[in-house]
Design brief:
alpha/beta, Rossmann fold, Beta-Lactamase, 6 domains, five-stranded antiparallel sheet, 22 strands, nucleotide-binding, ATP-binding, Sig_transdc_resp-reg_PrpR_N, PAS, HTH_Fis
């Protein structure tokens, strides 16, 4: 039973396929060696040469039956240049040549010998021929015609014995000469071993490639791979669908035109294109183009395309994950909009504080952006990338604050979570914890917070051992902590521990030069949300310009942001609001006029008396009346009463 199959299909896909190509005496050696490897490979015999062999082999390759071709001499070299599968050559070594020469000299003593070798002659052998006392002439060949010419030349030079490949031996016999076949059984065995192993590896690689393509084909994201010359190597159906390409047309050409700009940008700038939003065929797509680097060298690029709607669904899923949003600092110090001297001072102090791990105390009125500055300090510090945990000390009752900040062990109190719960200080380990409204912290917890700041360790409720923490503390308050210390409402030692680096954020009315710029920034950021056109945006800004210059902004940036949102809704292209309605929608204009009148009245009183007005001790009722007249502007009310803002604050509390 023959070990060779003539069918194009491999009857046993589990074994790799090897094609044995021989048009002469090499075939008998292959038939002798092949049975030893039938358990490791399937063998296909091809007895054509050169162009005819390529045609026959290509059918096997297209059918997926042949992984490696085994051949010899010029025939093998030709196949290697014209086939897409590896070609293993039967190699002639020095032992084969010497063995053939020995057989020739033993059989035909003193006969002139001609040696025909593929591609090059052996200069070392030429030097040895005199020492071996052998009359030896050599010729090299690269094609069938050169084999025939070599044999004829050697015969003309008196050679009676020809050593060479099968074709040279056949031509020698036709010319009446003796011949010795050059290839040995050992050389064929070595070639078989290499070809079978290479076929096994090739089959494994092909199996992995098919598996990978199958996986990629099932991806919802579009994927396309290109070599370093920009030629398409692989593409999945999702890419064609997302880009709206016609599968009946030239797909590589269409795809190259579609993704060519991204490939060129990646190549020219040596930087990946990441998460770029492109509008293609009425669909928003997220595009990435990343270079492929192998062993330190760029070998191509891979382009991925994702439907933006899918990304939105993924984003919604991520928002339901266990990690709270407050663990991430989203803002940077560059997000502080404005160029006033007061704001530049805040940036400068914040950057200086970010370079160290010292505790920072942020003070300022509500709405001035204390948490934004805290996040900016975190992102400018070496702790960026680690947790940023924000907690409002006025948001929970005293008992819950203690549990939230310091955590608790299982069974520490009725209703305690099974297994216990880490506190926010533990969650913020290696990162930053932001304690907002620190002035509202209950007195009983101030001592526990002080111990955390001093010892850098926390004691859970119900625990018998402290847990070390590495955390940076940023505290914030809108209250005068120094006054609270004087009143005994805040621990002095905690105040001095917190007040290491203090940054006071100016209210919006004290940096009026920034209001218009800040308003434009906030409105641009939310223009898409409210569907504002460019003309509508400018109309909103023009409408609110008087407020930018004269309004007291008691709610600071938060009030400005809310006012802009209200104006964007009522002054959009689709809104139909009359003048009377606008007066009701924007009462800030009325309060602005009251504030201006109060300030002008105070100034007129000063001028009327020549010097400062005669002071009297104002009462709380005087303070509240002045605040009402000034539209809530404490600075204007203080000036109108002739007292400082601290005194005003104390009278309000009284």
């Amino acid at each position: 039973m023959s070990i060779f199959t003539s069918s194009l299909a491999n009857p046993d896909p589990g074994r790799p396929g090897v094609a044995l190509v021989s048009i002469s005496r090499l075939q008998s050696l292959c038939e002798t060696v092949a049975p030893r490897y039938t358990g490791r490979a399937r063998f296909f015999s091809v007895r054509e040469g050169y162009g005819a062999a390529v045609t026959a082999l290509q059918a096997y390759v297209d059918a997926g039956s042949v992984d490696v071709v085994l051949a010899a001499g010029s025939n093998g070299a030709y196949l290697r240049d014209n086939l897409s599968v590896p070609v293993v050559m039967v190699k002639v070594n020095g032992f084969d040549v010497l063995s053939a020469i020995t057989r020739a000299t033993t059989t035909w003593p003193r006969a002139q010998i001609g040696l025909v070798l593929h591609e090059t002659i052996s200069h070392e052998l030429a030097d040895l021929s005199a020492w071996l006392n052998v009359g030896l002439k050599q010729r090299a060949y690269r094609s069938i015609d050169e084999v025939r010419l070599a044999v004829n030349n050697l015969a003309a030079e008196g050679c009676r014995v020809i050593i060479g490949p099968g074709m040279a031996c056949d031509l020698a016999q036709q010319a009446g000469l003796e011949s010795v076949f050059l290839y040995s059984l050992g050389a064929v065995e070595e070639a078989f071993e290499r070809s079978v192993e290479l076929a096994r590896v090739s089959r494994q690689k092909e199996s992995k490639r098919v598996r990978l393509n199958t996986i990629v084909a099932h991806l919802r994201d579009g994927v396309a791979a290109f070599d370093d010359a920009g030629q398409l190597e692989a593409v999945n159906p999702a890419m064609l669908d997302l880009l709206g390409l016609d599968r009946e047309q030239d797909v590589p050409a269409q795809l190259t035109r579609a993704v060519g700009p991204w490939l060129r940008e990646t190549l020219e700038h040596d930087m990946p294109v990441e998460e770029r939003i492109e509008q293609i065929g009425g669909r928003a797509l997220i595009v990435n183009c990343v270079p492929i680097v192998e062993q330190g060298l760029r070998s191509g690029s891979v382009v991925t395309v994702q439907d933006a709607l899918v990304a939105q669904r993924i984003d919604r899923s991520l928002r339901t994950s266990q990690r709270p949003k407050h663990l991430v600092a989203r803002h940077h110090l560059d997000d502080l909009t404005g160029s006033s001297a007061a704001l530049e001072r805040v940036r400068r102090l914040a950057r200086a504080g970010a370079a160290h791990d010292a505790t920072v105390l942020l003070s300022g009125e509500s709405g001035t952006g204390k948490e934004l500055v805290a996040q900016g300090i975190h992102n400018a510090s070496r702790r960026r990338g680690n947790p940023f945990v924000a907690f409002n000390c006025a948001a929970l009752p005293e008992g819950l604050i203690e549990s939230e900040l310091f955590g608790h062990e299982e069974g520490a109190f009725t209703g305690a979570r099974r297994g216990g719960k880490p506190g926010l200080f533990e969650i913020a380990h290696t990162g930053t914890i932001f304690l907002d409204e620190i002035g509202e912290m209950p007195a009983a917890l101030q001592s526990r917070l002080l111990r955390v700041l001093q010892e850098r360790e926390v004691m859970k409720l119900g625990a018998g051992r402290a847990t070390p923490v590495d955390v940076r503390v940023i505290a914030a308050t809108h209250r005068d902590l120094h006054a609270l210390v004087e009143q005994g409402a805040f621990r002095a030692d905690l105040y001095f521990r917190l007040n290491l680096l203090q940054i006071e954020l100016p209210p919006l009315r004290e940096r009026r030069g920034d209001v218009a710029q800040l308003a434009r920034h906030l409105l641009n950021r939310s223009a898409l949300q409210f569907g504002l056109s460019g003309a509508a945006l400018e109309r909103v800004l023009a409408f609110l310009t008087p407020l930018f210059e004269f309004y007291a902004w008691p709610g600071n940036v938060r009030e400005l942001e809310n006012l802009l949102a209200r104006a964007a809704i009522y002054l959009s292209d689709s809104a139909d609001v009359g003048g009377q309605d606008l007066q009701a929608v924007f009462p800030e204009f009325g309060r602005m006029r009251q504030t201006v009148a109060a300030v002008r009245g105070a100034v007129a009183q000063v001028h009327a008396n020549g010097d400062a007005p005669v002071r009297h001790s104002p009462t709380r009722e005087d303070v509240m009346h002045a605040l009402e007249q000034a539209g809530g502007n404490r600075a204007a009310a203080s000036r109108a009463l002739g007292i400082g803002r601290t005194t005003l604050w104390r009278l309000m509390k009284d």
